[in-house]
Amino acid sequence: MSDNNYDAIIVGSGISGGWAAKELAEKGLKVLMLERGRNIEHIKDYVNAHKEAWDYPHRDVATQEMKVLEPVLRRDYPLNESTFGMWASHQDSPYVEKKRFDWYRGYHVGGRSLLWGRQSYRWNVEDFEANAKEGIAVDWPIRYQDLASWYDYVEKFAGISGNRDGLDVLPDGIYQPPIPLNVVEKDIAARVKKAYKGSRHILNGRSANMTQPKPENNRVNCQYRNKCWLGCPFGGYFSTQSATLPVAMATGNLTVRPFSIVHRVLYDKDKKRATGVEIIDAENNQTYVFNSKIVFLNASALNSVSVLMNSATDVWEGGLGSSSNELGHNIMDHHFRVGAVATVEGFDDKYYFGRRPSGFYIPRYRNWGNDKRDYLRGFGYQGAASRSGWNRNIAELGIGADLKQAISEPGTWSIGASAFGEMLPDHSNRVYLSKTVKDKWGLAALEMDVEIKENELKMRKDMKDDLAEMFERVGLKNVYGYDGDYAPGMGIHEMGGARMGRDPKTSVLNAHNQVWDAPNVFVTDGACMTSSSCVNPSLTYMALTARAADFAVQELKRGNL
Amino acid sequence: MERRELLKLIAVSTGAAFVCADALAWDKPPQATALAKTGFSSDDLLLMNDVAETILPKTNTPGAKDAQVGQMMAIFVADCYTADQQQLFKQGLLELNKLTTQQYAKPFLLLDSAQKHACLSELDQQAKTQNSEAGLWGMESKKPNSRSPRDKSPLPHYFTLMKQLTLYSFFTSEVGATKVLRYVAIPGKYDGDLPYKKGDRAWATG
Lengths: 561, 206
Hints:
Chain B: Residues 131-154 are annotated as: Disordered. Chain A is an alpha/beta fold.
């Protein structure tokens, strides 16, 4: 390659990588974005986007053969025909489960920005202060106010639909009109408000699905197909492809190189700076070196950690950022798959039109205000109400015309929600490079040693019981609380491993996401998180990335990097 | 320089899509086993279609045969069922004919439609009793791939498998989803307060 020199290299092309590319390229830097997987071109490569259930050989369910091939994906919803090939293959990229860890990865341009849940909530003031107040892990080096204007900035561009609800626990942002609640959800929201005297709220979900078009970005508002995971030909939801990448490309400053697995960051120990990265080409297994003034790691939390562990090992055995003894530690996820369902009487004369990509949200109320529990932090619920369809339980019905007639009509209304709980950072929850298992390209696989502990287990009891109680209290029937099978990773909200902090002795990154030991290396994906809040994390990665990119360019200009 | 490397350089310098020969994401699910290789004879398929049609008959809307449910059942059994489910299902087809031969001195296919309905209604009742004694619930509304290979939990009555496959194959078919249920590919909006009157059909997808 004739010219391997860039101002900035970005490792990864998902939600945070896409933002880094947009911000740095817009500010005039020559940027190389490296993606380990294949390219996916907006619209053109969304090959299933217009398919229906009957267009798939097995009506979109996984075959037994697929289940054998993908022993992890089959544990939850990711394994199906319509998204097969979009979640990384365990065959090519294995990892080791010292304890069970469900790792769902998107190895292609756009990463999991094409596959995410799109719920977009701001952290609140307390989320950034709780560690310090409670003596948990280390203090965040930033506060809500440091991020508030960046939340504004990314929300405006990404296109978030939501309602401004005026609650401290869930700070309002800059929103397009919300995706509506249906008539039953509104009714139950009113009942809950009354029963709990305004201390609990059923709100419109806030989602990166647009309700208004953005013609300036060639994006159309959500069409209510609920097929987001097939790639949206309307650009109705935020992804790298629909939003950040086109803007970044339009600057003429961005180069994207797919099939580029970053092995390590190259480190000059005299200058204490990174000089670039070394990659393995996923197709020809050749090694290439690219040089840059700054490096942004956005490979997704655990992969960014893995790259750091492979870097500068001649200086630090544990890799770049390991001088704190915290690299790879404090891994978090959101624990979930616990909640309740109930049936709703009445509303037989009501139905709905369209398939929403979002539902309602009940923000945290535990350990908030005057509420005190025997555990720390809290949880929120995400759910929806709907009428049952043909696949409802039909024990009372036999066979024949009567059965067909009955299940061709909608059944009763029901409501359900799942809790997403905050997971405390704990030094003993860690990942590290395997000494024995390697991937297809000979790189050490990660070994996962993460579990939920006493605080989460106590919280889960409330997560189940609270919602059941709430449903009972507002007069719903057949209330059933459940605690399903959860293992760390299933939330697909991996966080931590290279946390931000105030002290290089106890954290990997500083307040601007710079690696303490290499200030021209920035980590702005989930790895940087010092605690996890209970709200979905991606919006916060966007804000942190935009903020860090702005700082990086200023520092470059000042000659500090 | 290799063509592949050249292509990549072009991709790098332009940012344009680098399309390789490998299968693209989203587009590589295993293909369905060819009908002839599912292990079912054409007589089996006739029988499966007939069972399905008895469970979901043509009325003023299309029935199971219109959606070729029998063929889809064969593919589900071959590709999505576990070995013990496959065995139970195939055994069930034999059992069914044995039963009608005892009761009506005819194979199932040769019964009149009232006899077919009576026969399967009775089996449906038997299945419900047997399933509930085994602690199984709601099996007929489960997805065809819901059992995992190493699952050692009890299997339901064979008729429950037939019913499960019939329901799933029918309502996920184009005929079932659009002619019996309702389906709008691009709704374009959400109305959470749509008037409903008894008899209006359900949406195919929530």
